[in-house]
Specification:
The chain is α+β, with helices and mostly antiparallel strands and 420 residues long. It has 8 helices and 19 strands.
Length: 420
Amino acid sequence: MSETQIKVPNIGDFKDVEVIEVLVTEGQLIKKNDPLITIESDKSSVEIPSNLEGKIKNLKIKVGDKVSEGDIILTVESALEVKKEGVKEKPEIKKDLKKIEVAKPEIQQNTFSKNNISDIVSSSPKARKFARELGVNINQVVGSQRDGRVVEDDIKKFVSFNSKNDFVAKDSKPDKIKNEFEHSDFGEIEIKDIPRVKKLSSKYLINSWTTIPHVTNHDEADITEMESFRSSLTNMYTGEKIKITPLAFIIKALVASLKKFPSFNSSIDEIETGKMTLKKYYHIGIAVDTPNGLMVPKIRNANNKKISLISKELKEVSELCRNLKIDKKELFGGSMTITSLGGIGGSFFTPIINYPEVAILGVGRSEKKQIFINGKFQTRTMLPISLSYDHRIIDGAEASRFNNDLKENLGKNFAYKLAV
């Protein structure tokens, strides 16, 4: 049984050009001019065709390899040997043809669904590059040209169809940037597992950041009276000081603003049909920092609870999160989330919305400042707040009004005083 090598032909003044696609597999029958690989330089993508007929014996290169003129792509068995094998393989070929005929009606019904007939489709390097840029597996696209050849228009229709049907192909992944060097090339390193909670939350964060158009409104709330009131709380029977976290007051103030601005207590169901869900409950999510990563349990029905009870529940759910004993359901079904860095430090930041909510309140560390009021400077305790909102459902003016209302609720007119 004789074998013949197929090598990289003269591709011009290029060396070490990257192989970006291997279009054939071992054991496959090929004809002259069938595309074998696609290579890509800084200037263009080029398909390398076969100059022989036969059956592929051994593939010598893979995606990511660098090739130059004369490098071996693969070896093929001679056409004569293939013809001898072809006699034996006829019954199997007939079976395959029957399978193709059965599949035809299905493909005609859904011309943009996954192509199950062949793992490799015919297309130009330009079309393949276009597909890669969109993160589309071109082998899932049914071509409209002769012999099923895929053109750019087919790829556009495929993307449009799958977007409307909320379908993402399993194999459709955008090109990943590959590091040219290992981290260890530059010094000592340590490999550690990513905490499980961070792994689980990462997909939700990515989904939120890539699907929601975030805008963040930064402001400061005067909480001088709130802090004075909070520090004055004592038990009427024992005279002992009652310790209540500022976060409990912020939750109560936030609920009051959500009642006035119901669009902040909503979720978008389907933007194309203009549907949104307005929630009649007030379940406030609290971002809890744990050794395993960030978790967001909910304080349920915060509108019906006194501040002292909210403060108690905050401690309880935080402890459950840190010990990984929180019920999974308690991490879902929120109205709006508060993430506070006050206990750690910092002022303004851009919190990521906790999908499928439409807004999140970021709270920084309060500090005393000189504020010009009624013609003179006064020392006031100011709280940095950062409101991120979904611009598809909330506009800038509404966000500013929401922040102003929240500031009032945290300020002199604090309604939560009656709900301790």
